[in-house]
Every structure is written in structure tokens, then in C-alpha cells.
Amino acid sequence: MGTPRQLPSRLYPNRLDQTNPRLETLRQLLADNPANTFARYGLAMEHVRSGDLDGAVREFEAVLTTDPKYSAAYYHGGQALEKLGKLDQARDLYRRGISATRDPHALSELQAALEGLAAWSSGLAPAYETRPGTRSRTPEGVLFRVQSQAFVADGGFRRDPH
User: Fold this and answer.
1) CA torsion, points 43, 44, 45, 51, in degrees to nearest 10?
2) Which residues are paired to 130 by β-bridges?
3) In angstroms, rounded to a whole number, what is the distance separating the alpha carbons of residues 64 and 59?
């Protein structure tokens, strides 16, 4: 038999128990300037990337405390809340973002997210495929219409079922 092989950590970059140099760099930037919303937003996105959704939500809220017009924080914060299954809080964050933003593109994204969540909650076809056994939606299964086919975000094409 022998000793089991250790897989290189670079194959699993999203492990919470590993040191993440980007997180450390962003934390240092925030230690130097706590009001740096760009660094705080980057920290929130790095938490999402590492799988720490609770940490991400905290940082998105901190961004919005400093800059209530930072529309991307509403959208990505709502997405993180959805993945945590906190759908009422996600709805609230999307609504707050719709009220706060003046950017037409961000407004349309927030409205689409809110409408998609409403359709999914009412049992209509969701904008996202859902993970089995959960109440959260996941963007990995988003279907993009391309002529008469649909592109699946995890790779490949399949015939549009509609």
C-alpha cells in the first residue's frame, strides 16, 4: 500500500483553512485605510471566492455603510445571501440597491435578480437552477440562450427545452 499521496494545495484554492495572500493583502490595505471601499469590496469578493459567504456578507454590508451607492455590493451581497439560503435578506438587499443606484446597468441587474428570486419563490421556472436539497439558487447552472441552443455555464451546449 504505502502512504496516501498529498494533492497540491493549488488544486483546491477555495479551502477556508488555507492562508490566502490576497485576503491578507486586502486586510492590510484596510488596516491602513478602513474607509477604502474598493479594498473592502475586493475583500468581500475574495471571501465569496474562498467560500466564506458569511464573511462576504459582513464585508458587503461594511461597503454599503461607507458608500450606500456602491451598487455592485448590493448585487453580490444579495447573491451571497441567496447561497446561504437567506432569501428574505437577499430580497431586502436587492430592494435597497434598486432604491440607491442611479446606474442603469446595475439597476437592471438588481431588478432581474429580485424578479428571478420572486419567480423562483413562487414556483415558476427559476432564473437559476437550484442545488438539490437546498433553497438557494446557484449561478453555475445559468442557461444562456444562443439561437436554438442553450449554453450551460459549466461547459458545453444542450438543446433548449423550450
Assistant:
1) 110
2) 137
3) 9
State whether 96 and 149 are in the same domain: no
Q: What pLDDT, in 10s, does the model give residues 100-113?
A: 999 999 999 999 99
Domain total for the chain? 2
Which structural domain range is residue 154 located in? 129-162
Gap between the Cα atoms of 57 and 112, Å rounded: 20
Question: What is the rounded CA–CA span in Å between residue 84 and residue 27?
Answer: 24
Q: Assess whether 121 and 159 both reside in one domain.
A: no
CA–chain centroid gap for 91, Å, is 14
| Residue 115 and residue 162 share a domain | no
pTM, rounded to two decimals: 0.66
- CATH of residue 58's domain is 1.25.40.10
Q: Could you count the other beta carbons within 10 Å of the beta carbon of residue 43? A: 24
Measured CA to CA, the distance from residue 126 to residue 128 in angstroms comes to 5
Per-residue pLDDT reduced to its tens digit, 73-83: 999 999 999 98
